[in-house]
């Protein structure tokens, strides 16, 4: 079997996955703008405070592509952005009910982000981010406090 025959054989076996990948890449200009303008549903929030928190989360939410065999869009917020939102908006225990409600309703991206903030104001809650929300943990997100404010 010649080298050319081997290459042709590989291409024949991989033509469908390669074709799907090519379609996904070529169609990116069609679906990527919709992903970049993802709406967290802030206008549907019932209170002014929840709208304010939602808009801050939406401002810091960025699109990312999880590339496995086909690139898929997703949204994330850096932990440093969560700290900035927490500090800038003065989020505290009084916001916990709103954050919990936001984490149960609305788009999934908003639910996860609101849950992350809820975990910061209720550090005793055992959850996924517990190491970052436990004040005794060395990885505590607010270990240095908020810039320009005393540590809590």
List keywords for this structure.
mainly alpha; 152 residues; elongated; 8 helices; 8% strand
Which ranges are low-confidence, i.e. pLDDT below 50, for 5 or more consecutive residues?
Answer: none
Distance between the termini: 72 Å
Annotation, overall tally of beta strands: 2
User: Overall 3D geometry?
Assistant: elongated
* Count of alpha/pi helices: 8
Going by helix content, strand content and strand pairing, the class is: mainly alpha
Name the helix and strand elements from N-terminus to C-terminus, one letter apiece: HHHHEEHHHH
Helix content: 40-55%
How much is the average pLDDT? 76
As laid out across the biggest beta sheet, the strand order is 1-2
Notes on the protein architecture:
- This protein has 152 residues and is mainly α.
- Helix content is 54%, strand content 8%.
- It has eight helices and two strands; from the N terminus they run H-H-H-H-E-E-H-H-H-H.
- The protein has helices at residues 3-13, 15-26, 28-36, 48-60, 79-88, 96-104, 108-121, 130-133, and strands at 62-67, 71-76.
- Strands 1-2 form a two-stranded antiparallel sheet.
- A hairpin with a 3-residue loop joins strand 1 and strand 2 (71-76).
- Helix 6 packs antiparallel against helix 7 (108-121).
- The longest helix has 14 residues, at 108-121.
- The chain is elongated.
- It starts with a helix and ends in a 19-residue tail after the last helix.
Explain briefly what this protein structure is.
By secondary structure, this protein is mainly alpha-helical.
């Amino acid at each position: 079997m010649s080298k050319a025959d081997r290459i042709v054989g590989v291409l024949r076996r991989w033509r469908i996955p390669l074709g799907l990948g090519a379609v996904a890449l070529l169609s990116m200009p069609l679906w990527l703008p919709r992903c970049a303008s993802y709406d967290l549903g802030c206008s549907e929030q019932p209170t002014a405070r929840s709208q304010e928190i939602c808009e801050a989360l939406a401002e810091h939410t960025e699109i990312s592509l999880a590339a496995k065999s086909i690139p898929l869009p997703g949204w994330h917020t850096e932990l440093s952005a969560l700290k900035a939102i927490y500090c800038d908006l003065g989020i505290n225990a009084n916001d916990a009910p709103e954050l919990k409600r936001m984490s149960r309703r609305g788009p999934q991206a908003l639910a996860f982000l609101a849950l992350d903030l809820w975990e910061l104001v209720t550090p005793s809650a055992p959850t996924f981010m517990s190491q970052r929300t436990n004040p005794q943990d060395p990885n505590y997100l607010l270990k240095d406090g908020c810039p320009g404010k005393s540590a809590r």
